[in-house]
Amino acid sequence: MQGAGTHEIQNIIITVFEVFALVVSLLMIAVGLIQNKKSQTGLSALNGGNDELFSNSKERGLDKTMSIWMFSLGISLFVITIIICILTNTILK
């Protein structure tokens, strides 16, 4: 049996993780807007417009840094989302 104080603390913990997820998603949007616009997108590959999809072009400088940031932010958002799911399933039962 849980007390009222324990339930409030658990809700605060879930809210903190949700705020972290929001901040990470906003950072992903910002990094996506900063990334190089010259590169072809995945949507172009669906349309057949991406001729260099499997070419051996290497990213350098800012492009590589932004790709690394986007990858790490994506993984952290995935982990935070899984943590939120686990916490809500264990706390709300």
TrEMBL record:
Superkingdom to which the source organism belongs: Bacteria
Keyword annotations of the record: Cell membrane, Membrane, Protein transport, Translocation, Transmembrane, Transmembrane helix, Transport
An example molecular function term from Gene Ontology annotations: protein-transporting ATPase activity
InterPro entries: SecG
Transmembrane annotation, as ranges: 12-34, 68-92
Biological process (GO), any one: protein secretion
Entry keyword annotation includes Cytoplasm: no
Job description of the protein: Involved in protein export. Participates in an early event of protein translocation.
Annotated protein name in UniProt: Protein-export membrane protein SecG
Classification lineage: Bacteria, Bacillati, Mycoplasmatota, Mollicutes, Entomoplasmatales
